[in-house]
Design a protein that fits this description.
By secondary structure, the protein is mainly α. It has helices at residues 2-12, 17-25, 30-55, 58-66, 70-87, 90-98, 104-121, 124-137, 142-169, 183-206, 224-248, 255-272, 280-289, 296-336, and strands at residues 211-214, 217-220. The protein has one domain. It has a two-stranded antiparallel sheet.
Amino acid sequence: MADSLDTARAQRTPGTPHKRASGLAARPWWPWTRRLLWTAFFVLVGTLLFTQAREVQWPEVLAAMRALPAWTLALAAALAAFSHALYSTFDLIGRWWTGHGLAVRQVVPVTFVSYAFNLNLGSLVGGFAFRYRLYSRLGLDNATITRVLGMSLVTNWLGYLVLAGGVFAIGAVTPPPDWRIGAMALRGLGVALLAVAAAYVLMCAFASRRSHVVRGHEIELPPLRVALLQLGISCVNWATIAGVLFVLLQQQLPYPTVLGVLLIAAVAGVLTHIPAGLGVLEAVFIALLAGDDIARSTILGALLAYRFLYYLAPLVLASLVFLVIELRARTPRAETA
């Protein structure tokens, strides 16, 4: 049974090196065009990073972190590191599903780099462009990269659906009076989110038709055990991210409330297409949490520390890892030439 699964996965892996090489030989203009496009891409990334760094109020970040106890920062940093490490395993599910031959030590750094840039620069630059860039440098074709990316996206949002659905359904978060969505509507949304997650798991368990075409892309349902794995690691990851904020807020608010507000802020950041959700995260937390129980300054201080520990520090490390991957990918070509 294991041999047949491995054979099937190998057959699903499209593309071969000699076919790609012959295709490039027929298009002599393509290498120069590709270099030009990627040069423009790196200029864009550099500009975004510079802009991002200028928008950060560094004195306020340092002041907020100094106001927190050392053990609080240490625990929050450990949780942030665990979350990034856990997310870095998401693409391993796609590795198994597509049967591509990259080693774990190659897949995990690519996922980490993509996630860190995704958080800071948005999904188009981080989650998509960096994955295609790095995986193609390691030899994967676009069709395989797309399937790996799709599996990771489903993994990430499946856990969101379950946690957000549960938190909203039990009424852990109360919308302000001036919001368009009321408490009952939010609970109804929670039930709907749980239904969507349950439908995916049930389809993976019982659907007789395992392949579907959506907008020209073939989508295959994984086995039930894979769907449950996706659900488990995604829920743990979202819960850990909320744990970072819960610790930085020094447990002044119930954990389910912090989790619920984070999940609302996450969607708000995606919908606004603002890199790192600048201003969105703060606005949602202030609107939902600031009041008699906790001061506005406490929330802002915790969020500044959170941005440094979960967004900026990993981005610095990811930039270094990205350079290492790029240099290693160039070395074999130089030796071949």
